Amino acid sequence: MAGKPVLHYFDSRGRMECIRWLLAAAGVEFEEKLIESPEDLDKLKNDGSLMFQQVPMVEIDGMKLVQTRAILNYIATKHNLYGKDMKERVLIDMYTEGTADLNEMIMLLPLCPADQKDAKIALIKDRTKNRYLPVFEKVLKSHGQDYLVGNKLSRADIHLTELLYYVEEVDSSLLANFPLLKALKTRISNLPSVKKFLQPGSQRKPPTDEKKLEEARKIFKF
Ligand SMILES: N[C@@H](CCC(=O)N[C@@H](CS)C(=O)NCC(=O)O)C(=O)O
């Protein structure tokens, strides 16, 4: 039997958190080798483990996978979370890319200079309320089903649920006008695998604070 996937990343959400979420939701146990210093990162770079000299990197099924989207695609395919045909898959891809766009805006917020932060938060709130969440609310309303695509759990539901947690961290009132999204969040959060991941002490990472940001700056030299 193949061993557990091994995740190589810094001890924060960053680009790895969506991979942690997807594996956890699929019920896959994983290990983490945390990058704690520039030397740890250099070691991975120098031993040829990182195709583009970047993390996330995931050791899985005898491979060393890089590029977040490629890793997610592999996990979703392997665990049957990627639709039943091309038409479902392209929908899942569109929803996934939409969630990724807003997720990235929120993920990069801690890097925003202090004098631009309020404007950035205002933009995120505007995009959340007026661009992204209305799309997903409308999809759920249009078919009346429990999941976004094909009446079956897919990666799109998992990525969206992860995003909804982040949106609420930005402003807990942002979901107020999206009852179907609130219900989806509750439904997905109650899946046993996700419920376990949401418990304290799991491998889920907290929001990135100043201390983590400083550590990241040292490791990734930005
Ligand atoms: N397109 C890549 C981007 C990866 C990336 O930017 N990784 C950063 C950390 S989040 C990194 O490894 N930076 C070090 C470097 O570029 O030297 C992906 O999605 O995986």
UniProtKB/TrEMBL annotation:
Gene Ontology biological process terms, A to Z: glutathione metabolic process; xenobiotic metabolic process
Q: What is its EC number?
A: 2.5.1.18
Keywords annotated in UniProt: Transferase
Under Pfam families, the record lists: GST_C, GST_N
Reaction catalysed by this chain? RX + glutathione = an S-substituted glutathione + a halide anion + H(+)
UniProt xrefs under CDD domains = GST_C_Alpha, GST_N_Alpha
Q: Which residues form the GST C-terminal domain?
A: 85-208
Which PANTHER family does the protein's record reference? Answer: GLUTATHIONE S-TRANSFERASE, GLUTATHIONE S-TRANSFERASE A1
Protein name, UniProt field: Glutathione S-transferase
Organism encoding this protein: Marmota marmota marmota (Alpine marmot)
Whichever gene encodes this chain, its name is LOC107144002
